[in-house]
Amino acid sequence: MDEQEIKSTIEAILFAAGESVPAERLALVLGIEAAEVLTYAKQLADEYSFHRRGIRLVRMGNSLQLCSAPEFADSITMALERRKPPKLSQSALEVLAICAYFQPVTRAYVDQIRGVDSSYTMNILLERGLIEPCGKLDVTGRPTIYRTSELFLRTMGITNLSELPKLPDIGSGEEAARLKSVIDSLKSDENGQFTIN
Fold first, then answer.
1. Sequence-separated contacts (24+) of 118-122 with Cβ below 8 Å
2. Which CATH number describes the domain made up of 3-73?
3. d(CA 29, CA 14)
């Protein structure tokens, strides 16, 4: 196969799949290495972007998927008469951040960090496909462990978790002082609730 035929085959497979396809699977079909598949996929993605095509080729880890270009989202929504999905609540964003930065995690771990029961919120994230079960912890009760999904990567516009913003170093003097000032600004009212000045 020549270069154009390989790129056209990748494009056809991804279009027909309608979901992400591992580069290794494409490599088996094409009779080339997975690294070559990723190189051709990058070329295709650049071509789509350069020519302002209505589709984009996105990479999530070592998987590839075709999707619509984000600048056409409003037109697609109008044409297909779909409602925008509801935004995530603050608690859902907290749980998602914990899962993203500390994965794999158990529900109990998330509860421990947040200090409240997070089972309802985790179920919402599971239903929306932003997190997924990835096994069982080898302890008594064998709790399920969770990680973020490919949909999470696509939603965040990143190819892997290393592209997430770095967490601040709370141990450093400046960050610790800033955290202390926030804590000091909290005052307890008569009901034991905290308010911020």
1. 118/91, 121/89, 121/91, 121/92, 121/94, 121/95, 122/95, 122/146
2. 1.10.10.10
3. 13
Q: What is the CA radius of gyration of the chain?
A: 22
How many angstroms separate the Cα of 137 from the Cα of each of 119, 142, 143, 146?
Answer: 17, 5, 6, 10
Give the tokens for residue 13: 């497979």
- Fold for the domain defined by 90-166: Arc Repressor Mutant, subunit A (1.10.10)
Q: How many residues does the chain have?
A: 197
Q: What is the pLDDT of residues 143-183, one digit of tens each?
A: 999 999 998 988 888 888 888 888 776 665 665 566 555 55
**Is the pTM of the predicted complex or chain greater than 0.85?**
no
Angular region, 61: left φ>0, alpha ψ -120 to 50, beta rest: left
Domain-by-domain residue ranges, the chain? 3-73, 90-166, 171-197
Q: What one-letter code names the amino acid at 102?
A: F
Find out whether 65 and 58 touch, Cβ atoms under 8 Å. Answer: yes
Contact 106, 143 (CB under 8 A): yes
> Residue 59 CB: number of other CB atoms within 10 A?
19
The model's pLDDT over 54-69, given as tens digits with 9 standing for 90+, comes to 999 999 889 999 999 9
164-184 exposure pattern, b = at least 16 Cβ within 10 A, e = fewer: eeeeeeeeeeeeeeeeeeeee
